[in-house]
Amino acid sequence: MAETYLDQLKRYTTVVADTGDFRQMEEYNPQDATTNPSLILAAAKDEEYREVTQRAVQDMRNSALSSEALSAALIDRVIVAFGLEILKRVPGRVSSEVDARLSFNAAGTAERARRLIDLYEQAGIDRERVLIKIASTWEGIQAARELEKEGIHCNLTLLFSAVQAAACAEAGVRLISPFVGRILDWYRKATGESYEDAETDPGVLSVRRIYCYYKKHGYGVQVMGASFRNTREILALAGCDLLTIAPSLLRELAEQKGEVKRVLSPTAAAEMDLPLIATDENSFRFAMNEDAMATEKTAEGIRRFAADIRKLEDMLLQMHAATK
Q: Catalytic residue positions?
């Protein structure tokens, strides 16, 4: 009997569930799971998971914190509450994201990351099972550099360019999440082309180049392709260290059969001509300025996540007020 695409993909790549829905994780048996503010907001609104949210809010019912500090504490506790539930269902790691509104504040990002790790450790979770998600701004990367020195491992997200990837490598982060589908979205809008063939898909080509750059130069950073629009993009990155996949696409991969070939490998990457990229602050900022797609998509992603954090914040403060 022919194996499914998903079964074969797992031979070459670690499959990660991109969801906050516990049921879907149990269905597809991923190694790790990733979340973001939008996924946490959706899960927190789900009646089935209301108890998880309420329990986190109840823990703060007697708090004497100021309004600003209280809202931050509530958000962190809910993020960790869902992370703890996820870790009951995956054998590996969960990625939990720092408030996107701190994306240009290195010190603030590092402080919130430490608080998240502290909450996980209070619950008995070893920090090796947690990745702190941080936007790939210059400030975010510098925060991650410091956190990695403390043994707090980071997943640099909202990553769209080679210079972001190179700076993350020099900072020694554990993992990056280049966004395949959002790159495709930008190029489709900018050029009017459909890019139906994965071999011309700008998002796929970007992740392939980053993977090969890392392997060519011996960086130990893991590459986790993210934000897919279709299964063609996923299969075109077979062999990537990790791929984080939404449940709808996991379902398609689990239902389809055919041959999956490994596309990416360290051996092939070693033969490529990929010179080192300058990653000092001036070079980084200028390279981002020259890359309209990376600049626009990074900013857009931060705005969207910040908007969902504000919605989550309002919901949690209302729930907290109801406990008085």
A: 133
Is residue 175 classed as helix, strand or coil in its secondary structure? Answer: strand
What's the whole-model pTM score? 0.95
Cα–chain center distance at 7: 23
Tokens of 244: 């984080």
Contact indicator for 255, 4 with CB cutoff of 8 Å: yes
CA distance linking residue 188 with residue 201, whole number of Å:
10
Could you give the CA distance from residue 62 to residue 265 in angstroms, rounded to a whole number?
54
Q: Which domains does the chain have, with CATH numbers?
A: 5-322 (3.20.20.70)
pLDDT digits (tens, 9 = 90+) for 256-307: 999 999 999 999 999 999 999 999 999 999 999 999 999 999 999 999 999 9
Per the CB < 8 A criterion, the answer to whether 317 and 71 are in contact is yes
**Cβ neighbours for 132, distance < 8 A, ≥ 6 positions apart:** 95, 96, 97, 98, 113, 116, 117, 144, 147, 152, 153, 154, 155
